[in-house]
Amino acid sequence: MIDTSHGQDGAEVGAQVAGHDPVKWHAHWKLEKRLGDNPDAEPYEVLEGDGNILTYGGISNLWQSLIGNGGSGALEYFDNANAYIGVGDSNTAAAATQTDLQAASNKLRKAMDATYPIHTDGTGSGAASIVFRSTFATGDANWAWAEWAIFNASSSGRMLNRKVEALGTKTSAASWTLTLTLSLS
User: Fold this and answer.
1) What pLDDT, on the 0 to 100 scale, is given for residue 7?
2) Do residues 35 and 174 lie in contact, with contact meaning Cβ atoms separated by under 8 Å?
3) 60 CB neighbour count, 10 Å cutoff
């Protein structure tokens, strides 16, 4: 007598990867133009817009800071002691490889206003953000503004991002305050 049996071993494993939304980088800028150097004066013009380009040096600095390698030399933090908004008169297209404003001579980096940058964690809104703000007094940056960027030093250092946008021509009769809100959601 021959016994015959057939068996089958097997296992089935299923995994489902839930879809995810990619992280979104958003840059919003606001320029307030005031007559004189009075920061409490009502602006005579307000311009707002969106967009910029992150630079390779700026992205690298963010990653280095994330793993604790920031705080010295070119890897300074973008805090109140080190952050600057720079403006210039070049309309050269923005590129991720750039390390400075593209203006040949008409460019200036201005330190943060008191208490800036400001961080919000996005609790409830879904968008964590950092707000940078610098005021350019009547004696500062009197030329056609065509580009802006955020830096972590008054010279050299790292440029986080750059935007090319015609914002008008500043004169010594006015002070201009540029506010930049960068967010991730």
Assistant:
1) 42
2) yes
3) 14
Would you tell me how many other CB atoms lie within 10 Å of the CB of residue 90? 15
Q: Do the beta carbons of residue 110 and residue 82 sit within 8 Å?
A: no
106 CB burial (10 A radius; 0-12, 13-18, 19+): middle
Q: Is 172 left (phi over 0), alpha (psi -120 to 50) or beta?
A: alpha
Q: Number of C-alpha atoms within 13 angstroms, CB side, residue 89?
A: 11
Q: Alpha-carbon distance 140 to 107, whole Å?
A: 10
pTM of the entire structure? Answer: 0.85
Average confidence (pLDDT) over 17-26:
70
Find the length of the chain.
185
Adjacency order of strands within the sheet including 144-151: 53-54, 159-169, 144-151, 84-88, 107-111
Instruction: Give yes or no for a cis peptide into 39 (omega within 30° of 0).
Output: no
DSSP 157: S
**pLDDT at residue 164 is higher than 90:** yes
Among residues 27, 154, 2, the alpha carbon closest in space to that of 94 is found at 27
Residue 168 has a CB neighbour count (10 Å cut-off) of 14
